[in-house]
TrEMBL record, chain A:
This is NADH-quinone oxidoreductase subunit D domain-containing protein. It comes from marine sediment metagenome. Signal peptide: none annotated. Gene3D superfamilies: Cytochrome-c3 Hydrogenase, chain B (1.10.645.10). PANTHER family: FORMATE HYDROGENLYASE SUBUNIT 5-RELATED, HYDROGENASE-4 COMPONENT G. Keywords: Oxidoreductase. InterPro entries: ComplexI_49kDa-like (IPR052197), NADH_Q_OxRdtase_suD (IPR001135), Ni-dep_hyd_lsu (IPR001501), Ni-dep_hyd_lsu_Ni_BS (IPR018194), NiFe-Hase_large (IPR029014). The keyword Oxidoreductase applies. One of its GO terms (molecular function) is ferredoxin hydrogenase activity. Residues 119-284, 287-360 form the NADH-quinone oxidoreductase subunit D domain. Pfam families: Complex1_49kDa, NiFeSe_Hases.
From TrEMBL, chain B:
It holds the Pfam family Oxidored_q6. Belongs to the complex I 20 kDa subunit family. Keywords: 4Fe-4S, Iron, Iron-sulfur, Metal-binding. InterPro entries: Complex_I_20kDa-like (IPR052375), NADH_UbQ_OxRdtase-like_20kDa (IPR006137). This is NADH:ubiquinone oxidoreductase-like 20kDa subunit domain-containing protein. Residues 22-136 form the NADH:ubiquinone oxidoreductase-like 20kDa subunit domain. NCBIfam families: PRK06411.1. SUPFAM superfamilies: HydA/Nqo6-like. The keyword Metal-binding applies.
Length: 393, 146
């Protein structure tokens, strides 16, 4: 006999780092439908950017997502550089690559740890986060902060990395090989992890393409899509590396992709440190002409896309952000349905969803509580009133 | 000293709420649990329910959508309890002050339901884990004076 129920997860749930709300429609133990309701984290960054000058915006977009805080500013400055036709100095391209790959290392290790935590393997959580700390240390040495790097700047980089710091980075990422081997072997050889991850959360290559999945989510389904290779930016076309894909299309595949990408990141960083030459790090952009530009960056979670339009003033007229989680989250529809409830947590986590990137707001409806209901028109009105207030003050 | 405050002097349990943060403070809060910082040496752990918690660690700007939910979570906590407002956003909404989707700041939101709430501010964007540990220890010291 079938027994259909709805299971609510969120908005605050011990497994989730952020506030998000899922409704699982289940029949017995099997998930038959999933509904994702977001916008708890929406902060109106695109609108906020229109009130900032071009040079201030990188600091705002850095806070779109704390984990991709090198990718978002880079995508934004690339968009602005496309408007202003800037030739970025080569040393700065390498610096950007180094910081972005360090970020990928820390983000993937973070995911491996959290995935272990979701599965009840807290040892993996502790290990992965322990080995992540040296990466955070070199990021702090090189950029001044553990997580908000303030590295990218229109026309170059804000801060140079000294030879001594480069040697330190080289040493630390070199030493990361051994713990990574240990972690990779622990994950790939563990029979329990095989049983929990293999054949779970299947996202077929066709479904991945249909939903427009990007990053490790798509590569874990055997779709070789990577902006770093398809539309090279920074110094990715100057170094030798491979796009990692995995067959299997399941959560295991996504884990394999992330672990192997850590090795690629180390390879890229080591080559950059070898090839980087002394020189200018800033093209000193004077003004931004009218026009529009796009910037694409392969963030740890997939392609980050920024669109910027300028009217020749010192502020962007429109800034559009499409974060990777925004296109990866709908794949839940393909990967969660037909799963057991117990497998849903890891299937949701396998995408490494980042809600602070994703939150959009069109309409907020909550039928049960007395939460205010906003239509999109109300939001536009609120926003316009705010701009009006600020203009007058 | 009342029995409840006496019991609060050690081993504070923390419930973490993301009230619209960018994840930076959240990953630093999680980093507190891991071997480098290991906040469990103070007897502190993250718990899964506000009803079990002595400390409410709030990160983020407190968006309109979150406001009533944050108040509800706070009301569910046994009193007395301490609120840790972690990061520039939780302190005063940071760079998002001017955005249209902001509710009130975390302290105003909580004081709207409990004017006598104890709030500890941890500045920084994000604060370093060491700063969070220092704040937690200050919170313990403060509770001893109650």
């Amino acid at each position: 006999m079938s027994h259909k129920t709805i299971i609510n997860i969120g908005p605050f749930h011990p497994l989730q780092e952020e506030a998000e709300f899922f409704q699982l429609h289940v029949d017995g133990e099997t998930v038959i439908d999933v509904d994702v309701r977001l916008s708890y984290n929406h902060r109106g960054i695109e609108k906020l950017d229109e009130s900032k000058t071009f040079d201030q915006v990188p600091f705002v977009v850095e806070r779109v997502c704390g984990i991709c805080s090198a990718s978002h500013p880079l995508a934004y400055v690339q968009a602005v550089e496309e408007i202003a036709h800037v030739d970025v100095p080569e040393r700065s391209l390498y610096l950007r690559t180094i910081v972005n790959e360090l970020e990928r290392l820390h983000s993937h290790l973070l995911w491996v740890g959290l995935a272990g935590h979701f599965l009840g393997y807290n040892t993996v959580f502790m290990w992965a986060w322990k080995y992540r700390e040296p990466v955070m240390d070199v990021l702090e040495t090189a950029t001044g902060s553990r997580v908000n790097y303030a590295n990218a700047k229109i026309g170059g980089s804000r801060r140079d990395i000294s030879d001594e710091q480069l040697r330190e980075i080289d040493k630390v990422v070199g030493e990361l090989h051994r713990p990574l081997d240990m972690l990779t072997n622990a994950v790939l050889d563990d029979p329990v992890l095989h049983a929990r991850l293999k054949g779970v959360g299947i996202l077929s290559p066709e479904a991945a393409k249909a939903y427009g999945a990007v990053g490790p989510t798509a590569r874990g389904s055997g779709v070789p899509i990577d902006v770093r290779r398809d539309d090279p930016y920074a110094a990715y076309d100057l170094v030798d590396w491979d796009v990692v894909t995995a067959p299997g299309c399941d959560v295991f595949g996504k884990a394999v992709v992330r672990l192997l990408e850590c090795y690629e990141a180390i390879k890229i960083i080591k080559q950059c440190i070898k090839q980087i030459r002394p020189g200018e790090i800033d093209a000193k952009v004077e003004s931004i002409p009218p026009g529009e530009g796009i910037g694409r960056v392969e963030a740890p979670r997939g392609e980050t896309f920024h669109y910027v339009r300028s009217d020749g003033s010192n502020r962007p007229v429109r800034h559009k952000i499409r974060a990777p989680s925004y296109v990866n989250i709908p794949t839940f529809k393909a990967s969660c349905i037909g799963q057991q409830i117990a497998d849903v947590a890891i299937t949701l986590a396998a995408v490494d969803p980042c809600y602070s990137c994703t939150e959009r707001m069109c309409r907020v409806v909550d039928a049960d509580t007395h939460v205010q209901v906003y239509q999109f028109a109300d939001l536009v009105r609120l926003s316009q009133q705010k701009t009006d207030r600020m203009r007058r003050s | 000293m009342a029995l409840t405050t006496w019991a609060l002097r050690k081993s504070l349990w923390v419930y973490h709420v993301n009230a619209g943060a960018c994840n930076n403070c959240d990953i630093e809060v999680l980093a507190l649990l891991t071997p480098r910082f290991d906040i469990e040496r103070f007897g502190m752990i993250l718990v899964g329910s506000p009803r079990h918690a002595d400390v409410l660690a709030v990160t983020g700007v407190c968006t309109r959508q979150i406001m009533p939910r944050l108040q509800e979570v706070y009301m569910q906590m046994p009193k007395p309890c301490v609120v840790l407002a972690i990061g520039a956003c939780a302190n005063a909404q940071g760079i998002f002050t001017e955005a249209y989707h902001m509710g009130a700041a975390v302290d105003e939101t909580i004081k709207a339901v409990d004017p006598s709430a104890i709030i500890i501010y941890v500045p920084g964007c994000p604060p370093k884990p060491e700063a969070m540990i220092a704040a937690a220890v200050k919170g313990m010291e403060f509770l001893k004076t109650l």
